[in-house]
Amino acid sequence: MQVTSSVREPLITGGKTLKDVTHDVSRQVEGKPTLGWILGLLVAVGALLLGSLALVATLWEGIGMWGLNKTIGWAWDITNFVWWVGIGHAGTLISAVLLLFRQKWRMAINRAAEAMTIFAVICAAMFPVIHMGRPWLGAYWALPLPNTFGSLWVNFNSPLLWDVFAISTYFSVSLVFWYIGLIPDFATIRDRATGLRKTIYGALSFGWDGAAKTWSRYESVALILAGLATPLVLSVHTIVSFDFATSVIPGWHTTIFPPYFVAGAIFSGFAMVLTLMIITRKVFKLEDYITIGHIELMNIVIIITGSIVGIAYITEFFIAWYSGVAAEQYAFINRAFGPYWWAYWSMMTCNVISPQLFWFKKIRTSIVATFILSLVVNIGMWFERFVIIVTSLHRDFLPSSWAMFYPTLSDIGVYLFTFGLFFTLFLLFAKFFPVINMAEVKSIVKSSSEKVNK
Amino acid sequence: MAQVSNYNLDQKFDFTASLKKTIMTVLGLGVALFAVGVITSLFGGHHDEAAEASGHAYHWYHRVFANLWINNVYFTGIAVIGVFFFAIQYAAQAGWSTGILRVMLSLGNWLPIAGVLMIVTFFVASHDLFHWTHSYLFDKNDPQYDYIIDGKGAYFYWPMEKGSFPIFFIIRMIAFFGIWVFFFNKLKNLSFAEDNLSGSHDWSNIRKWSAIFLVLFAVSSSIAAWDWIMSIDTHWFSTMFGWYVFASWFVAGLSVITLITLFLKGKGYLEMVNENHIHDLGKFVFAFSIFWTYIWFSQFLLIYYANIPEESVYFVERLQSDVYSPFIFVNLALNFVLPFLVLMTRDSKRHGVFLKVVCSLIILGHWFDFFLMVQPGTLGHNGGFGLMEIGMLLIFGSAFAFVVFKSLAGKNLVAKNHPMLEESYHHHI
């Protein structure tokens, strides 16, 4: 028997029944696309097409199209890569870690967050692949494939190679986890449909029959995948941080990087979930499922992770001074007061100062404020990676090699391409897949809806 | 919601004479072992003439000071983790743990004693524990002048002259204990006051105080780790260190909470805490043992991989020492391999016997973790794990147990008006 304390906020409002859940979520899949959705898709596909000009130019001419130079060999490419991978953390965190912590509020947002994760990881993976210059040979650089190119063999000591393994494993598990969760909901849509739609959703649902045995297997698989996904979600950003921290570059080599990158990833991931869900709940009229309570809890996660990131920034700064290592001290002073001061202070303002506004209940329960701050956090986390990567590189060990980085149109265009890809995929998902996990939400209708508490 | 339950919500722990006697026996055993350890090192110690001439001779009491410091820092951590975990339950709106809230809180009773011990030990032993307390390091005319330590001297001495009185360091120590003791008392008073009230107002009030404590704890625990431990190896630095010490404290604290809960259940108390709640505690111990290993490994790997001499010296000193290198592996075996393998299965987390063994060994294991943080920098090759270490650990352990059990006795063991108590009864996993 389940008991819910009276001090808990209801997770479902509006007195919804099981039938309402099915109807409210399936209606988007079954109805005609709305004008807003079509316009959104046009914008996303437009960005995709415009950005692909830059992508094709880069692939045709080589990565000389980018603004990289001899000193700054990594800039927007890796910044964008880490930014997208970070965003790709929230989905699996919500589904797996919050599942292990039995946080029921995850149920309304996990489906969309997982979809977002998968699309973000796809966008992230584009950058290392493009950076290979000749991606058609990329498999030889990224995987230990026997070949006749001479000395071409992967470096197992390199964290970049560990990244290939970590991210591809994470992507596979996240994809399977997401799809398995979708199966019962596809079956629900199949059962309501006729004609072609019935055939398509029937095929997608793998012949789900809803028998007790089927549900039992489904739950075992979900738990095993959650157990696998939890260490994976931590390992991915840990290894991304190793890309920098195993080096001896001042500003990159610091031991706090692994947990701090993971916290930053969760921070940016939740911000992107909020950006997307605030629009989705409004457009699809899902306010009774994704309530202000859900938004408030996500904002609390943002305060916590933002503060962890803030403590890490201050720790790095302090230890740079405390270490007595001149190069380390210079790297941090240069970050804050050198030519890239504006990037550093954008990062500090967006990531550390502005999320503290969520301590005010008025702000963290305001849709408008949350939406704005979620964008601010996403901007701040992009700057964080830019600050770490570019400001640490631009002052080389030899002052004669000091340089600045200026992005070219190709840098900007390829980034735009990933935005186009991300939103195109997300909009297609939102229209054709159930955006809320109906089966899971139904399991808490009895215990956590308004009717029970009031 | 109107569930009637037959649990005795006014149960009080009886600190029996026989339990007191057991604790006193362990204390006595600790004192005896410690005394034997001191005597052996008094008469068995070797003389290092060269060191003696330079004023750095090793004396038996150096080892006593190092032991005092290891246990002070370790048990302070366990005590503050009790308050931290209590605060987490409120901040996270956890329902499952309601039956054991008072167990978590009881650990905090050690904090005032720990604060006094810490400050007294620092005043007595600072020159033998902390290299940076020597004024010659900051004197440019002295042959032993150290420009790196001079560079960070302000962290200890500001606003006084470097090498004089470490006012900044002491103020921080007093402030951290002050904050922790204040919030412990605040949360304790609010929690016990709730027993005489009803309604959820107090729950949200405690939640608010918990959130403030967590923010302050996040900052103070890291700085405390730099102050009390990292500065022993004065040249060395690692940005991860604060979180590393926190992870070690947290697992040890969780193990102590689990052991006390199992002990109380064994005595017939806390009957609303069943194997489901024990399972959750086991999962916490399991998960955060892996978390500690993750932090340990990340710090080690990054320093090992980059191999910058200023940083790698820390691990070289330990791994290449005959005294300490075995304990690196003891540390990893007890704190990672053991809980990882034993607590993997569901059953091992639901049966008290496995948890009792694993948690006891983890408490010992994390003691070794702090042993490895403190002794190499204070005693060098003169350190080791002997009778003095075992004795001092038993003394601190039994004193800590006495304080905690004394605080549990005579008061309600269960937060009977907690709004999530009913939820906790029906917790099934």
UniProtKB/TrEMBL annotation, chain A:
<feature type="transmembrane region" description="Helical">
    <location>
        <begin position="80"/>
        <end position="101"/>
    </location>
</feature>
<feature type="transmembrane region" description="Helical">
    <location>
        <begin position="113"/>
        <end position="133"/>
    </location>
</feature>
<feature type="transmembrane region" description="Helical">
    <location>
        <begin position="412"/>
        <end position="433"/>
    </location>
</feature>
<feature type="transmembrane region" description="Helical">
    <location>
        <begin position="221"/>
        <end position="240"/>
    </location>
</feature>
<feature type="transmembrane region" description="Helical">
    <location>
        <begin position="260"/>
        <end position="279"/>
    </location>
</feature>
<dbReference type="GO" id="GO:0005886">
    <property type="term" value="C:plasma membrane"/>
</dbReference>
<feature type="transmembrane region" description="Helical">
    <location>
        <begin position="342"/>
        <end position="360"/>
    </location>
</feature>
<dbReference type="Pfam" id="PF03916">
    <property type="entry name" value="NrfD"/>
</dbReference>
<keyword id="KW-1133">Transmembrane helix</keyword>
<protein>
    <submittedName>
        <fullName>Quinol:cytochrome c oxidoreductase quinone-binding subunit 1</fullName>
    </submittedName>
</protein>
<comment type="similarity">
    <text>Belongs to the NrfD family.</text>
</comment>
<keyword id="KW-1003">Cell membrane</keyword>
<dbReference type="InterPro" id="IPR005614">
    <property type="entry name" value="NrfD-like"/>
</dbReference>
<feature type="transmembrane region" description="Helical">
    <location>
        <begin position="367"/>
        <end position="392"/>
    </location>
</feature>
<keyword id="KW-0812">Transmembrane</keyword>
<feature type="transmembrane region" description="Helical">
    <location>
        <begin position="35"/>
        <end position="60"/>
    </location>
</feature>
<feature type="transmembrane region" description="Helical">
    <location>
        <begin position="160"/>
        <end position="182"/>
    </location>
</feature>
<feature type="transmembrane region" description="Helical">
    <location>
        <begin position="300"/>
        <end position="322"/>
    </location>
</feature>
<keyword id="KW-0472">Membrane</keyword>
Automatic annotation (TrEMBL), chain B:
<keyword id="KW-0472">Membrane</keyword>
<feature type="transmembrane region" description="Helical">
    <location>
        <begin position="165"/>
        <end position="184"/>
    </location>
</feature>
<keyword id="KW-1133">Transmembrane helix</keyword>
<feature type="transmembrane region" description="Helical">
    <location>
        <begin position="353"/>
        <end position="373"/>
    </location>
</feature>
<feature type="transmembrane region" description="Helical">
    <location>
        <begin position="385"/>
        <end position="405"/>
    </location>
</feature>
<feature type="transmembrane region" description="Helical">
    <location>
        <begin position="209"/>
        <end position="229"/>
    </location>
</feature>
<feature type="transmembrane region" description="Helical">
    <location>
        <begin position="22"/>
        <end position="44"/>
    </location>
</feature>
<keyword id="KW-0812">Transmembrane</keyword>
<feature type="transmembrane region" description="Helical">
    <location>
        <begin position="64"/>
        <end position="88"/>
    </location>
</feature>
<feature type="transmembrane region" description="Helical">
    <location>
        <begin position="326"/>
        <end position="344"/>
    </location>
</feature>
<protein>
    <submittedName>
        <fullName>Quinol:cytochrome c oxidoreductase quinone-binding subunit 2</fullName>
    </submittedName>
</protein>
<feature type="transmembrane region" description="Helical">
    <location>
        <begin position="241"/>
        <end position="264"/>
    </location>
</feature>
<feature type="transmembrane region" description="Helical">
    <location>
        <begin position="284"/>
        <end position="306"/>
    </location>
</feature>
<feature type="transmembrane region" description="Helical">
    <location>
        <begin position="100"/>
        <end position="125"/>
    </location>
</feature>
